[in-house]
Here is the input.
Amino acid sequence: MQILVLNSGSSSLKFALLDPVSGDVRLSGLAERLGQEEASIRLDRFAGGERERSEESLGGGAHTEAVARVLAELDALGLRADVAAVGHRVVHGGETFNAPALITPEVEAVIRACIPLAPLHNPANLAGIEAARAAFPELPHVAVFDTAFHQTMRPVAYRYAVPEEWYTHYGVRRYGFHGTSHQYVAGQAVRMLGLNPGRHGLIVAHLGNGCSVTSVQDGKSRDTSMGMTPLEGLVMGTRSGNVDPSLVEYMVREAGMTVQEVTGALNKESGLLGLSGLSNDMRELEEAARNGHAGAQLAIDKFVYRLAQTIASYAVGLHRWDALVFTGGIGENSSYIRALTMERLGSLGLVPDERANESTVRGEQGVISREGWVTAVVVSTNEELMIARQTAELVKV
Ligand code: ADP
Here is the structure.
């Protein structure tokens, strides 16, 4: 039995066909530049430990054509009959969903109603759902929400100190994102460290292009650094994270920008890219900093300072703090960023293990600290597997 997992962006579609129990992937790939002339699709087929890759044009096709190509590939590989359900990553489920949901017309309507909260993501997710339902009408389709895991936050964590009507009438509150990754990684860490599933405290740092920290108590999200949108919180690849909201009006007045332009710059031209003036890619920044690039060094230092501050502040919201968990492209690979972060957290009882930290990269997982109050551990995230598992669980296949 296999689950087809789809993660659909406005001009891209990531897909994977995998076994929700073993996690074995049979087919995966990425369609890009959808809706444009150069639309293309990459297919990776896995069999007997070997990977066979091909890339082809989609002839200007969009989500429908990409899904049709995936379907044709499943037929060609003789795998179509094995597909039991389709799991869709959906970014925003508002306050309605605290768990995955079988996609019905009512569920689709709620995803549509959440468009104002995620104007770029939810329409793209709906386009993927529509294309997949047309291609696989006989299969159950499940929506797995980025926001769902964080619905266990309490008002003290999710409310902003703004007029009440902004919340009750307009839904202005903190929702949090990366929930699928945080939930998966937290579960893995509990198993790896032999913690009690019903009594533990973790702080998970998901550090990729987007970055967020979540505190997890007894399997439940207590607080998370992304807010109403993914702009809040940490310094990220191109996002500023927390800034004084008054700077929007200031830049409109002083620089003659529109509100949309300022918001666009905070999302796409800020963060590591804005600070360094060089790149949003941590690998490139580490290299440049080693060669004496002052902007790259400042970007790294600010990234780490904000990260360590956030982690430390989340420790106060937990009953107990057992472990700090690193994941995502930076968290899983950058021993430098991890070392700098752990160094700053020394006063909270974290004792880094330099050698273990250095060697835990490129898919290696495990503990990177010595005995202390808190254990630091690296866990590889796997959102596709989590979506496949939750989908299989919901449709009971
Ligand atoms: P996304 O959020 O798009 O899924 P990833 O989780 O793949 O992104 O993370 C991308 C980030 O991980 C980039 O900043 C990249 O530079 C960083 N990264 C990947 N490998 C390394 C490495 N060896 N050292 C430092 N940073 C790395």
About this structure: The two ends are 8 Å apart (CA to CA).
